[in-house]
Amino acid sequence: MYSNNGASYRQQPDGPGGEGDCVVLRVDNITTCFETPRGAVNVVDGVSFSLVRGKVLGIIGESGCGKTVTTLSVIRLLPRGGRTTGGRVIYGGRDLLRIPETDMRRLRGGSISMIFQEPASSFNPFLKISTQILETIRLHNDVGKHEARRIALELLDSVGIPDPDKRIEDYPHQFSGGMLQRVLVAMAAGCNPQVILADEPTSNLDVTTQDITLDSIKKVSDQSGAAMLLVTHDFGVAARMCDMICVMYAGRLIETAPASEFFREPRHPYAKALMNAVPDVRIRNTAAPASIGGKPPDFNNLPAGCAFHPRCPYPTAVCRTQAPPEFRYGNRTVRCWLHGEGDHPQACHNHGE
């Protein structure tokens, strides 16, 4: 079952014999803040979701909406000044926000693997790739040096690194960004992860390299059966990779839906605007895609009511004064007064659809 902000629902109907899905990691109402000269500011505000074995959950939204901070909160790698002040991250029956740091270090890179946006930051520039990948494999697997090297070569070959027996002795700067990203994917695969957290793993790559990298990540995910969280601002990547979509705005999840339903018909005005801003490469000589008016709000000075209302084409009086709760429609949820039910008389249920 996936959950969003305290409400649970299944991604697929139950199969014979009960639950059809297996939750590997559950994020329950986490809030993360950063200290600023103007005081503490919540950058992640009451976010909940679950990661299911063999499935990919995508979080999409504009830059600066809290996607990366959400991921770093899960793995407890927040930058200086950041702290998670509420909620739980449950993995293996334990709350990762409260276990000792020594235990957390054993999980990072092992059961829970992270694929960062900037792969170069994950490598020591003064050490050969062989040293770093073998160290990672041996840290999380009971194997000797020769067996670890055999595993490493197989992994590099599986993600499309040519001449892996030679390239493994190169230094990180001798690899292109795309190849270094695939080395990072290989390192993640070498630890048989149960959870993969991928933060914008293809944002700095050209289209061809992006495809190769996504294929590598998908292969690792399929082979290990890992649950994956994929953070991206790229709708094409999300449509290709994800089973479930969460849309984030101003630190909150404002729409959650199965990917097939979401891409057929997003419901939140912000999600619709994001979709309309994506050019359709299948159609030539069309007008430029629509842009979203205004800009994302300042976390230090969020507007009253719905955070999106200053940019929304359909704001009502209630939108300007009250933050919307989560409304449910079958297996999807929307935080928008335009989708409110009868217990909110100001809401216009079908307005704007």
Describe the structure in brief.
The protein has 353 residues and is α/β, with parallel strands linked by helices.
Q: Provide the CATH superfamily of the largest domain.
A: P-loop containing nucleotide triphosphate hydrolases
Give the neighbour order of strands across the main sheet. Answer: 8-9-10-5-11-12-14-13
The total count of helices amounts to 11
CATH architecture of the largest domain: 3-Layer(aba) Sandwich
Helix content: 25-40%
Overall 3D form: globular
Distance between the terminal alpha carbons, to the nearest Å? 28 Å
Largest sheet: 8 strands, mixed
What is the H/E order? EEEEEHEEHEHHHHEHEHEEHHHEE
**CATH class wording of the largest domain:** Alpha Beta
| Poorly predicted segments | 1-20, 281-285, 342-353
CATH topology of the largest domain: Rossmann fold
Average of per-residue pLDDT values: 85
The secondary-structure class comes to: alpha/beta
Percentage of residues in strands = 15-25%
What is the count of distinct domains?
2
Q: Over all CA atoms, what is the radius of gyration?
A: 21 Å
